[in-house]
Amino acid sequence: MSGLVLAPRSAGAPSTDDLARWRAADEAARPARLARLRDRLERETVDAYLGVSRENTRYLTGFALAEGEEKVAGDSGRFLVSGDDVVVLADTRYLEQAGEECPGARVEESYYDLPDRWPRILAGLRGRGGGPVRRVAVEANLVSQALWTRLQAAAPQAELVAADGWVEELRAVKEPAELERVAAACAVADAALERLLPSIHPGVPERDLALQLEWEMRTSGAEALAFDVTCLSGPRAALPHGSPGERRVTVGEVLLFDFGAQVAGYRSDMTRTLFVGAPAARDLELYRLVALAQEAAFDALGRAAGAQTAPTGVEIDAAAREVIAAAGHGDHFGHGLGHGIGLATHEVPSLSRRAAPAPLPWPTVFSIEPGIYLPGQTGIRIEDLVTFDAGTGRVERLTAFPREVTVVGT
After folding, report:
1. Any idea which fold 45-162 has?
2. Closest CA to 371 of 359, 380, 361
3. Which fold does the domain 173-408 belong to in CATH?
4. Dihedrals phi, psi of 405, to nearest 5 degrees
5. What is the pTM of this model?
6. FRET partner for 332 with CA separation of 20 to 30 A, picked from 86, 122, 248, 323?
């Protein structure tokens, strides 16, 4: 395998010093992050940027909302960036938090009434050249048509411009402290699955194993889950994103786990397909194919990194997909090969047949997760997170749990 390095296992949960160091790294990096966004505003001849994504809010301002909290936070957590100002919106529930987490920003109160406050907020910002704000970029894919219409009507002199993926593109290039946190989240998940193995035995329901795996992550350093744990047995493993149910683990079948931890805001994502008792010949052959497909992707990444070049997501997807298609299972691998990860579980870059034709960004981190799914019969997926850096020739697998055939429940 060309150039692939396995990240060392973490000694345990992140320490208080780790958490403080990562907070300091974010605060130190924020001016450069904002500068890159302001460069984009200048290129697009835009005076200000209205953000609503909670991941973008945390990345650019430091204000952190929990998963799903944005649904009840109203305007709190939304932010504006102009050429020389950063404004964070918050109501009384979040004013103290915003003051603590956003030392470089001006906090403005807003109580589910942003359109009413919109003219005053814009008047407090300076546009390009020091004049009034005339054009505002908005995260249009996350703003309702109703809010867009009300904002435009409240300040008709300020044109709203749809901005799709501007900050997400910035987040795709990871800083060292961001990569450290993804690796730490991987280490928490690795250790949690190891501790779960003795509890896997015939007759235990999927739902019980999923709950115990969540407990293992939360009690060993995860501040939250990256997403709900998937635990699927036998024919239910053919559901790429199924939810655990009451089906019980059975000898001679596969057991698929897809799970991730969150550490200091950053996430991990790993899939392991285990064998309960002696593997069936069919399942063992499918596992071999999926492992070969993943290896082909690793090799392609390693060759590119060794030459200090960046392939496209389409090319790496094709390297793995060709292995599966050549074995007659092309129709049984329907999803993309991988996705970026960081503050969100799924973010750019994408590795798929429909990925952007541009070279992969670097340094970055993404999943490599080929799979074969036979509806009503079985499913196999192996997923690892990989750091890729064409500049240094680095390809490093962050998930350390073994990829070899693993038999449990005996």
Report:
1. Creatine Amidinohydrolase; Chain A, domain 1 (3.40.350)
2. 380
3. Creatine Amidinohydrolase (3.90.230)
4. -55, 125
5. 0.95
6. 248
